[in-house]
Design goal:
By secondary structure, the chain is of the alpha/beta class. The chain is built from 19 helices and 12 strands. The strands form 3 sheets. Strands 1, 2, 3, 5, 8, 9, 11 and 12 form an 8-stranded mixed beta sheet that branches. The chain has a two-stranded parallel sheet with strand order 4-10. It has a two-stranded antiparallel ribbon with strand order 6-7.
Length: 486
């Protein structure tokens, strides 16, 4: 085979293997806004057989036809390299996308994983089957060995790339970082000595946010006088005594389904809404928390002011150079609406202003669905990234400590600065009620706010709220301090 024929084969093979997925690309990009006008009408008329033809039949036909009609070069590299190059290009683009913060091309990166790579598998399978009778057994085995070796090297490179990304990516998944089973109270801390309070049949029902869950679950377990098995506990307590529904627990609190909610302090608007419903909110701080901003260890920025954080969150500042860092874009990773971390940002930093649009990533791509499902992007610990969260989450997101918290207005987020109130983004974890309490609920509240409860809070890994606090719906001093901090 001459040089011209080799070149002609390589161009043909590359074109066939690179271009046969193109009919699917409008589908992958149609939610970007780039091709929405063209793609959505086109794909809205596709039936299940049409999608099946694009995803299965087309790559099989292309692979079989190429094997049946092509004039193969005698060398492995000339024969297979044109076929291996397109998937390597797509994998490279996908890995580059994953190593940097999400962009509007998140659809394309997930499309490579869920559509294009399976198509290439079918294409190669059809090509190898169609090629069986055109070579001797020895040549075919030698070619397959080289092919598998090349694929193994490419797979190892991509695997290391993906591992490097996942290792520095946290996913704010409540089920993943929930520290124990609520039915059995496994993993909760126990008091140093038997508590003076024991409640059995009429324990108060508790709900709250994930960051407060170890605290109030430990308190409930400590005063639980029953010694029941898991099955007996589930049968006895319907609904469960301890649940974790996040900020949705406020609605359950107002409806009287729970006695106490544990989480961040409610806003003045929330307090006014409860009062308008004839309720009497009672907010008691039990532990100290703080909103912490963090960056990659290589980021030279050590401290930001609250004003700088506000301007970053609203999109006014977009480059680290504007706040004393390198000349690179700031990628602020946010959380889903309603998440307690995002609420803390809104209350303590934004103060009524609207946050800049968050970074997005695609979490699923179903070829038979109307399009990809997107979620707020998970934090990726790369230079240029800026994340935030309540202090309780940090050792769950970064178990190896591979991050650096930022000081705010020159004050670092330490136990000492949270305890003395000098950290500007400190806030309390509160025990909130808004309906008349039973005798058991009142006893539980007083016990938790007393010396035994504070010791248990400390054992659970929190900083107890030792500051004298009058509590009650008429105590406006602490609420005013909280509102000022927001």
């Amino acid at each position: 085979m001459g040089t011209g024929e080799k070149l002609r084969y390589m161009v043909t093979a590359f074109a066939v293997s690179f271009l046969f997925p193109l009919p699917l690309l409008p589908y992958l990009l149609m939610d970007n806004g780039l091709m929405i006008g063209l793609a959505r009408p086109a794909f809205s008329i596709l039936t299940v057989p049409g999608v099946l033809a694009l995803c299965v039949i087309l790559p099989l036909v292309c692979g079989w036809s190429l094997a049946a009609r092509a004039h193969f070069p005698p060398t492995f590299s000339a024969k297979f390299l044109p076929l291996l190059l397109p998937p390597c290009v797509y994998l490279f683009l996908m890995s580059r996308h994953l190593r940097v913060p999400p962009t509007t091309f998140a659809d394309f990166a997930d499309g490579v994983r869920f559509l294009l790579l399976p198509q290439y598998g079918l294409f190669f399978l059809a090509f190898l089957v169609g090629n069986r009778k055109r070579e001797t057994t020895r040549e075919r085995r030698s070619g397959l060995a080289c092919l598998l070796l090349t694929a193994a090297v490419c797979g190892a490179v991509v695997g290391l790339e993906l591992y490097a990304v996942l290792r520095v990516t946290f996913f704010d998944d409540a089920q993943r970082i929930r520290p124990y089973c609520l039915d059995d109270f496994k993993g909760v801390v126990l008091p140093a000595a038997p508590p003076s309070l024991r409640l059995e049949a009429n324990q108060p029902r508790l709900d709250g946010t994930l960051s407060a869950l170890p605290l109030y679950a430990a308190a409930s377990r400590a005063v639980d006088g029953e010694r029941l098995t898991s099955a007996e506990r589930r049968e006895r307590h319907k609904p469960p005594v301890v649940e974790c529904n996040g900020m949705d627990g406020w609605e359950r609190l107002a409806a009287g389904e729970i006695a106490f909610f544990f989480g961040p302090p409610p806003s003045q608007r929330q307090l006014d809404e409860w009062r308008a419903q004839g309720l009497t909110p009672d907010v008691r701080p039990v532990a100290r928390e703080g909103l912490v901003f963090f960056v990659h260890r290589d980021n030279p920025v050590r401290s930001l002011s609250r004003e700088q954080l506000r301007r970053i969150a609203t999109g006014e500042i977009t480059n680290w150079e504007e706040v004393g860092g390198r000349d690179e874009r700031i990628f602020l990773f946010q959380h889903e609406n309603g998440d307690e971390n995002q609420r803390a940002l809104e209350q303590l930093i934004l103060c009524g202003e609207e946050a800049a649009p968050p970074l997005w990533e695609e979490s699923r791509l179903d070829p038979c669905d109307s399009g990809p499902v997107r979620r707020v992007a998970a934090y990726r610990n790369r230079p240029g990234a800026l994340g935030f969260g309540l202090r309780w989450y940090l050792d769950k997101w970064f178990p190896d400590g591979d991050f650096r918290p930022l000081a705010v207005d020159g004050v670092p987020p330490t136990d000492a600065t949270l305890r003395d109130g000098s950290y500007p983004l400190a806030l309390p974890l509160c025990m909130i009620s808004c309906r008349p309490l039973s005798d058991e609920s009142r006893a539980f509240r007083d016990w938790l706010l007393g010396p035994e409860g504070r010791d248990l809070i400390r054992r659970a890994g929190y900083l107890p709220w030792d500051k004298e606090y009058g509590g009650g719906s008429d105590d406006t001093r602490e609420r005013k301090n909280t509102e000022d901090a927001r």
